[in-house]
């Protein structure tokens, strides 16, 4: 579990002036990782670290001898076209790199001239999927989402009896995960219209979002060797934003008995930036269960998890319709919530996933599951926000939406802020719906 140290000091300022601006997602206390290249170029992708409105190019940094020891090894690993090698180095190397970066990017640092030559403006960058994602698992960690959506799919039996005992998940599809800026065609498939005896084939009419966080695994575990909860967070590299696009009409017809399949695997969009667990340390909270609920079984329980297993990450979903875009307007907020409401913690997910001996590998990705909060305006999916499509959302420009229409863009944002700590952000996760292929 990451403790507070000098890299979290809210008084730190960077010689990169934009990193000191109020409201920036990327002050010197954040230092998240992405892979990028210059926009429109044929350059190789390589790792980078966000600082203000700039990217510190790890490949350029690796060509210098500014850093030494463990931090230099980490820079070399981060210079590759995917972050898997850096992820595999483990928490000691990530900590060493963060400390070296923090010291070298501070006002007055002797390394300023060398590092200044390694900066690329974020406005001139294209991003890639940050890791070779071997496996993607999507969880279901909001009891509010599970109850809301369960009520729509099974009015008589909304929350299944296993929910409060076992972190529910399914194995997703890694090949269709894209990075922010992704656009995809509305999926086509089988649906069963209300009251019909047979399914029809066609474009999904109930295309939805799921507001989630992505959890990137760093070091893996050997097949057959579970990760105890006391060591679970040491295996986690960091968190990103994730939109688990969902075709609800396909899902309703296909999901029993084995769970979601083609309703989910046509596209998943993640933010380019991965915020490390260490950067999130100031925003830890106790993990609490309502008194009446079962306490986690011993393998999912630890003192540290109880004391500070939860994270207070503010989350927001924006919707930008083609009409709004044409009028030069920004996206309209349709949901605000926090990760603090999750029913299971990051550590519990890692431990549960491996308890049967399943091996995780560097660069594997977990989705948290839709992060709906306790009230309906905190719901992270349109199916909840519109009560199954019955109550359309009214947008500020007079338009309304039940599910997504062609041309709609969805923007997820995330950040952490509180008194006594630096505000840090995740940037954005943006995706756009294209018409179905004819
Ligand atoms: Mn999901």
Distance linking N and C termini: 51 Å
Q: In percent, how much strand structure appears in the residues? A: 25-35%
The radius of gyration over CA amounts to: 21 Å
CATH uppermost class of the largest domain = Alpha Beta
Helix content: 10-25%
Low-confidence blocks of residues: none
Superfamily (CATH H level) name of the largest domain: Fumarylacetoacetase-like, C-terminal domain
How many beta-strand segments?
26
Main sheet specs: 8 strands, mixed
Shape: globular
The chain-level mean pLDDT equals 97
Query: What do we call the CATH topology of the largest domain?
Result: Fumarylacetoacetate hydrolase, domain 2
Oligomer: single chain
Q: What structural category do the secondary elements indicate?
A: alpha+beta
- How many structural units, i.e. domains? 2
Small ligands present: manganese (II) ion
The appropriate CATH architecture of the largest domain is: Alpha-Beta Complex
List the total number of helices. 12
What topology does this entry show?
Blueprint: E1 33-38, E2 46-51, E3 54-57, H1 58-62, H2 69-78, H3 84-89, H4 91-105, H5 112-116, E4 119-121, E5 125-128, E6 136-139, H6 143-153, E7 169-171, E8 177-179, E9 182-185, E10 188-191, E11 200-203, E12 207-208, E13 211-217, H7 229-232, E14 236-243, E15 246-247, H8 248-254, E16 268-270, E17 275-276, E18 284-285, H9 303-308, E19 310-311, E20 314-320, H10 322-326, E21 332-338, H11 346-354, E22 365-367, H12 382-385, E23 393-394, E24 400-401, E25 409-416, E26 424-434
Parallel strand pairs: 6-22, 8-16, 9-26
Antiparallel strand pairs: 1-2, 1-5, 2-3, 3-4, 6-7, 10-11, 12-15, 13-14, 13-22, 14-16, 14-17, 18-19, 20-21, 20-25, 23-24, 25-26
The structure holds manganese (II) ion (MN).
Manganese (II) ion binds at residues 138, 210, 212, 244, 367, 369-370.
């Amino acid at each position: 579990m990451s403790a507070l140290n000098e890299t979290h000091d809210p008084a730190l300022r960077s010689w990169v002036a934009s990193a000191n601006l109020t409201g920036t997602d990327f002050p010197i206390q954040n230092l998240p990782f992405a892979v990028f290249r210059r926009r429109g170029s044929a350059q190789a992708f390589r790792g980078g670290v966000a600082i203000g409105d700039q990217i510190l190019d790890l490949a350029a940094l690796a060509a210098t001898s500014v850093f030494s020891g463990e931090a230099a090894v980490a820079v070399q690993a981060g210079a590759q076209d995917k972050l898997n090698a850096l992820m595999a180095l483990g928490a000691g190397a990530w900590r060493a790199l963060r400390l070296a970066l923090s010291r070298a990017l501070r006002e007055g640092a002797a390394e300023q001239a060398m590092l200044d030559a390694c900066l690329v403006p974020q406005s001139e960058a294209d991003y890639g999927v940050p890791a070779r994602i071997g496996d993607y698992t999507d969880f279901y960690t909001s009891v509010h989402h599970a109850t809301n959506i369960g009520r729509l799919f099974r009015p008589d039996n909304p929350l299944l009896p296993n929910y409060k005992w076992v972190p529910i998940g399914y194995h997703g599809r890694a090949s269709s995960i894209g990075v922010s800026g992704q656009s995809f065609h509305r999926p086509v498939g089988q649906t069963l219209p209300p009251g019909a005896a047979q399914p029809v084939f066609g474009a999904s009419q109930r295309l939805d979002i799921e507001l989630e966080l992505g959890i990137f695994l760093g070091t893996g575990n050997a097949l057959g060797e579970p990760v105890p909860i006391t060591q679970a967070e040491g295996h986690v590299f960091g968190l990103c934003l994730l939109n688990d696009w969902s075709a609800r009409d396909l899902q309703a017809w296909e999901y029993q008995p084995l769970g979601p399949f083609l309703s989910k695997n046509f596209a998943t969009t993640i933010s380019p930036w991965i915020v490390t667990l260490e950067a999130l340390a100031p925003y830890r909270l106790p993990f609490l269960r309502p008194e009446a609920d079962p306490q986690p079984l011993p393998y999912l329980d630890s003192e540290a998890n109880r004391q500070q297993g939860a994270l207070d990450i503010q989350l927001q979903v924006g919707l930008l319709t083609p009409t709004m875009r044409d009028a030069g307007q920004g996206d309209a907020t349709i949901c605000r919530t926090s990760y603090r409401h999750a029913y299971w913690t990051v550590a519990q997910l890692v431990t549960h996933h491996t308890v049967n001996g399943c091996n995780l590998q560097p660069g594997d990705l977990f989705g948290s599951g839709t992060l709906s909060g306790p009230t309906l305006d905190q719901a992270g999916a349109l199916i909840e926000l519109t009560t199954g499509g019955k109550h359309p959302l009214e947008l500020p420009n007079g338009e309304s939406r039940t599910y997504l229409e062609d041309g709609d863009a969805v923007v997820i944002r995330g950040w952490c802020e509180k008194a006594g700590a630096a505000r840090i952000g995740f940037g954005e996760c943006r995706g756009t719906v294209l018409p179905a292929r004819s």
